Amino acid sequence: MVVDAVDEVVLRPGGFGSMPVAVDDAGDVCFEAHVTGASEPSTVAGLTWAFTVDGPATSRPSLARNCVSLSLTGEGTVTVDATAVGVSAQTSFVVGAAARRAPTTAGPRGPRGARPTAGERAATVE
After folding, report:
1. Are the CB atoms for 103 and 71 separated by under 8 Å?
2. What does the alpha-carbon distance between residue 19 and residue 94 come to, in Å, rounded to a whole number?
């Protein structure tokens, strides 16, 4: 179907930002454009999209259609505006603190800070 207008732009469900996200996460935020018909809305493909991102994120074009790729750079609210054929939609989500990583255990150290490398094979050598 060839169209020159769309009736609505909506956030694609289940995408990035629909679940909790944290600093240093990355993913795509995707939208769909629909035309309404007699029965159900039809998704329109092949449109040119414009995205505006505000908040603690860097953006770049995505390889996926109708999407923008985000890298989250800090805590706060990220807002993404998407426009296709003059019709816009907006989504916002909160970026939480980065997950804390458990410190790794270094284990025992030998002379001058070197880690012992003796294993089973070394233990059997006399």
Report:
1. no
2. 10
Q: Which residue has the higher pLDDT, 56 or 36?
A: 56
At 65-90, the pLDDT tens digits run 999 999 999 999 999 999 999 999 99
Three-state SS at 102: coil
**Residue 3, number of CB atoms within 10 A of its CB:** 13
Residue 122: count of CB within 10 angstroms of its CB: 9
Q: In whole angstroms, what is the distance from residue 74 CA to residue 71 CA?
A: 9
Evaluate the CA torsion angle 112, 118, 122, 124 in order and state its sign: positive
Buried b / exposed e over 84-108, threshold 16 CB at 10 Å, is beeeebebebebeeeeeeeeeeeee
Residue type, 108: P
Sign for the CA dihedral angle at 118, 120, 123, 126 comes to negative
The pLDDT, as a whole number, for residue 41 is: 77
Could you give the CA distance from residue 86 to residue 13 in angstroms, rounded to a whole number? 22
